[in-house]
Design brief:
Number of strands: 18
CATH topology of the largest domain: Rossmann fold
Shape: globular
Structural class: alpha/beta
CATH superfamily of the largest domain: P-loop containing nucleotide triphosphate hydrolases
Helix content: 40-55%
CATH architecture of the largest domain: 3-Layer(aba) Sandwich
Strand content: 15-25%
Number of domains: 3
CATH class of the largest domain: Alpha Beta
Bound molecules: adenosine-5'-triphosphate, magnesium ion
Number of helices: 22
Length: 636
C-alpha cells in the first residue's frame, strides 16, 4: 500500500537515507527500529509529506487514510472537553450532525418535500456512518487509555503533555485509518495503558508502522521488523526476538562468507604473484587478475556500534537519611493524592515508584525532589545530600535555540569547556556535534542532552522520572549499568519492565493515599501483588507490605508451635509453586497468542496440550493449598 523506492534524503552533506527500499503491505504490523538519530522519525515525516525527498519515490494509493502520531509532545491546546476533541475524529459525522440539526430547525416552519427528502438523505448517511455511536466509541477508547468519566468532561488544556498525547492517540485511532504510523507511542503511557494499546493494535485490521525502543511491546505487537541503519532499511520477517536471532545468524553467515572470500583472494593473489614473471603464463595471469577484479566482494560484518558510556559519580557521601516525608497531605481540585502519608528514603535505597497514572507518581516525585512545595506536612533533606532531578519537563525545557554545548554551559557554569565536552563525548556528541542546535535533535538525542545535564550535578541522590523515554535499546542498557554501579541513592519512575527488574531493590506504590513499600524486587512485587489480588489472600498489608512468608504465631504451645511451623513452611512452598505455575501459564498463553504458533496446527496442538496440563496442575496445587490452610486454621 506504500512503496518506498530508492529513497535518498540528505540533510546538509549527510545522507540520512541512501537508496533505501521498503514496501508496506496492507495488514503489515511492522516495528521500525534503529539507534537514536538514524532517521526513523524522519522517515515517517517523509511518508506523510512533511519533508520532501532528495531523490527516489514514495508512492501510495490515492485515497489512503494515514493516522500519524508525532513523537514530539504536540502542544495541542483546546478549551473543549477531551471527549469533544476525540470526537473531532469523526469529521463527516459531525458535519452531518450539524446539517441535520439545521434541517430540523427549518422544518418547524417549512414542510416542503424537498427538505424532508434532504433530511432523510442526511439521516441515512449519518446512520450508515454509525453516527449515533460516535460518542460511545470515543468514550470507549478514552476509557481504555485511562480517562475516567469525569476526566472526559475536563478541558484538554487542563491535562499534562503526556495525557494530551493520549487524547491525540485516541483521536487518531477513532479515524479508523488504513495505516497507522506511531512514533514511540508508549513513551508517555503507564503499564495498564501500554497493555491496552497492545491488545488494541493486535486487533487492528489496517497496517501499522510503530517506531519503538520497547522490546516487550514490539514482541507483542509486530510481526515484522525493519531496521534503519546506515541509510538503508533492512527487513526481518518476525518480531523483535526473531530479529535478534535472525540478525545474529545473518551476521555469522556474512562473517563466514567474508572470511572464506578473503582466504580465496589471498590465494589468488599468491598465484598471480608467482606466475607473473613467466611469459608462458601471462594470459592466465591476466584473466585471473580480471576475475579477481570482477569478483563481487562480501563486506565484513558492520560492527560499528557507538554506544553512550557514562557513570553517575559523586564526591561526597550522604548521611543515613536521605529524605524524610512526615504527615504529607497533597491534593488537587477534586482528587486527593496523599493523606497524612509518611515515608523515609535511606542511603543506598534504590526505589522504583510504580502504579497507574493519575495515582500521583510524578507528584510524589516532585515533592521528594523539592520541585513542588504546595503540600501539607514536612519534607526533610538529610545531611550532605546532593540531588539531581531528571524529568520529562526537563526534556521539554531544553532551549531549542541553544547549541548543545551552550545548553550545558548555561546549566553548569562552574564546569570548564573541556569537562563539559568530555561529558558530551560520553553521550556520543563529539567534535562539531557540540554545536548542533537542540531544535534539530532527534528524541533520543535530546534525552541524552538532558541526561548529560543531570550528570554535571555531582549528585549522591538521583530522582528520575521516566529516564528511558526516547532512548534506544543500547542506551537503556548503559543506563541500567550506570544505575547498578551507582553507589548512592535513587528513586525512579519508569514503565520499562526490563529496567525495573534490573535496578530496584524496593518498590513504592501509592494506595489509599498512603505511600506503601514492598521490600523486594519488581518481579517479587508482581508475584506478591498477583497473589494478593486473589480472594484467599487475607493478609492485607497496612503501611508496610510484608514479604509473602507467613509468620508463625508466637503464642501457641511449643509442640503445636512446631506443627504450625511445619504446616506454614509447607504452605509457603506450595505458594511458590503456585506462583511458578501461574507464570508458566501466562507464558503458555502468550505462546498460543504468537502467530508463529497459532498459524501452525501442529504447534498449536502441542502448545494447547501443555497449557491444559499446566492448568490442571495448578488446580491440584490450589486444592492442596486449601487443605493445608484449613488445617492451619483448625490449629489456631
Ligand atoms: N535540520 C537538521 N539539521 C541537522 N541535522 C538534523 C536536522 N534534522 C534532523 N537532523 C538529524 O538527523 C538525524 C535523524 O533524526 P530523526 O529524528 O529522524 O532520528 P530518529 O531515528 O527518529 O531518532 P530517535 O530514536 O532518537 O527518535 C538526527 O541525528 C538529527 O540530529
Ligand atoms: Mg524519532
Amino acid at each position: 500500500m506504500i512503496a518506498i523506492n530508492n529513497l535518498t534524503f540528505e540533510i546538509g552533506a549527510r545522507a540520512l537515507y541512501d537508496e533505501a527500499n521498503w514496501h508496506i503491505k496492507p495488514g503489515d504490523k511492522a516495528g521500525l527500529i534503529g539507534a537514536n538519530g538514524t532517521g526513523k522519525t524522519t522517515l515517517l515525516k517523509l511518508i506523510v509529506g512533511e519533508y520532501s525527498l532528495t531523490s527516489g519515490s514514495i508512492s501510495m494509493a490515492k485515497d489512503i487514510k494515514i493516522g500519524y502520531l508525532n513523537q514530539d509532545l504536540l502542544s495541542h491546546q483546546s478549551d473543549k472537553s477531551i471527549l469533544h476533541v476525540a470526537m473531532e475524529a469523526f469529521a463527516r459525522q459531525n458535519q452531518l450532525h450539524g446539517e441535520i440539526e439545521r434541517l430540523l430547525e427549518k422544518l418547524e416552519t417549512d414542510y416542503s418535500d424537498d427538505l424532508i427528502q434532504k433530511l432523510s438523505d442526511k439521516q441515512t448517511e449519518f446512520e450508515a456512518l454509525d453516527g449515533y455511536s460516535i460518542e460511545y466509541r470515543a468514550h470507549e477508547i478514552l476509557a481504555g487509555l485511562g480517562f475516567s468519566d469525569a476526566d472526559q468532561k475536563r478541558k484538554l488544556s487542563e491535562f499534562s503533555g503526556g495525557w494530551r498525547m493520549r487524547v491525540m492517540l485516541a483521536r487518531i485511532l477513532l479515524q479508523a485509518p488504513d495505516i497507522l504510523l506511531l512514533d514511540e507511542p508508549t513513551n508517555h503511557l503507564d503499564l495498564p495503558s501500554i497493555k491496552w494499546l497492545e491488545s488494541y493494535l493486535q486487533a487492528f485490521e489496517g497496517a501499522i508502522v510503530i517506531v519503538s525502543h520497547d522490546r516487550y511491546f514490539l514482541d507483542r505487537v509486530v510481526t515484522t521488523i525493519v531496521e534503519s541503519k546506515r541509510g538503508k532499511l533492512i527487513p526481518y520477517a518476525g518480531n523483535y526476538s526473531f530479529y535478534l536471532e535472525e540478525k545474529a545468524l545473518r551476521e555469522e553467515i556474512q562473517s563466514n562468507q567474508y572470511k572464506n572470500q578473503q582466504a580465496k583472494i589471498k590465494q589468488e593473489e599468491r598465484l598471480i604473484e608467482r606466475f607473473r614473471a613467466k611469459a608462458s603464463k601471462a594470459k592466465m595471469v591476466q584473466s585471473r587478475v580480471k576475475a579477481l577484479e570482477r569478483m563481487e566482494k562480501v563486506e565484513d560484518v558492520d560492527d560499528y556500534n557507538p554506544t553512550v558510556n557514562f557513570r553517575f559519580k559523586f564526591s561526597k557521601q550522604s548521611g543515613r537519611h536521605v529524605v524524610r516525608l512526615e504527615d504529607i497531605s497533597k491534593s488537587y481540585p477534586g482528587i486527593s493524592i496523599l493523606q497524612h502519608a509518611n515515608a523515609i528514603i535511606e542511603k543506598g535505597d534504590k526505589i522504583a515508584l510504580i502504579g497507574a497514572n493519575g495515582k500521583g507518581k510524578s507528584t510524589l516525585l516532585r515533592i521528594v525532589a523539592q520541585a513542588d512545595s504546595q503540600f501539607e506536612g514536612k519534607r526533610e533533606t538529610g545531611h550532605n545530600v546532593t540531588q539531581t532531578f531528571f524529568a520529562q519537563h526537563q526534556l521539554e525545557a531544553l532551549h531549542l535555540d541553544h547549541e548543545i554545548l551552550q545548553e550545558l554551559q548555561a546549566f553548569a557554569p562552574k564546569h570548564t569547556e573541556t569537562e563539559l565536552r568530555s561529558i558530551l563525548g560520553c553521550f556520543l556528541f563529539t567534535g562539531d556535534d557540540a554545536f548542533k542546535k537542540i531544535r534539530v535533535l532527534s528524541g533520543g538525542e535530546k534525552s541524552r542532552v538532558a541526561l548529560a545535564k543531570a550528570l554535571t550535578a555531582d549528585a549522591n541522590f538521583l530522582v528520575l522520572d521516566e529516564p528511558t523515554n526516547h532512548l534506544d535499546i543500547q542506551s537503556v542498557n548503559i543506563l541500567i549499568q550506570a544505575l547498578k554501579q551507582f553507589e548512592g541513592t535513587f528513586i525512579l519512575v519508569s514503565h520499562d519492565r526490563y529496567l525495573l527488574d534490573n535496578v530496584a531493590n524496593k518498590i513504592w506504590f501509592i494506595e489509599d493515599q498512603q505511600i506503601k513499600e514492598y521490600p523486594g524486587t519488581y518481579q517479587e512485587y508482581e508475584a506478591w501483588q498477583a497473589k494478593r489480588q486473589q480472594p484467599r489472600a487475607e493478609e492485607q498489608p497496612k503501611k508496610k507490605a510484608p514479604k509473602p512468608e507467613p509468620e508463625p504465631a508466637k503464642t501457641v504451645k511449643p509442640d503445636r508451635d512446631q506443627q504450625t511451623k511445619k504446616l506454614n513452611k509447607a504452605l509457603a512452598a506450595i505458594e511458590t509453586h503456585i506462583a511458578e505455575k501461574e507464570s508458566a501459564i501466562s507464558r503458555a498463553e502468550s505462546q498460543i497468542a504468537d502467530e508463529q504458533v497459532y498459524a501452525d496446527p501442529a504447534k498449536l496442538a502441542t502448545a494447547t496440550q501443555q497449557y491444559d496440563a499446566l492448568k490442571s496442575e495448578l488446580r491440584a496445587l490450589q486444592a492442596e493449598w486449601e487443605k493445608l490452610a484449613e488445617e492451619i486454621m483448625k490449629m489456631d
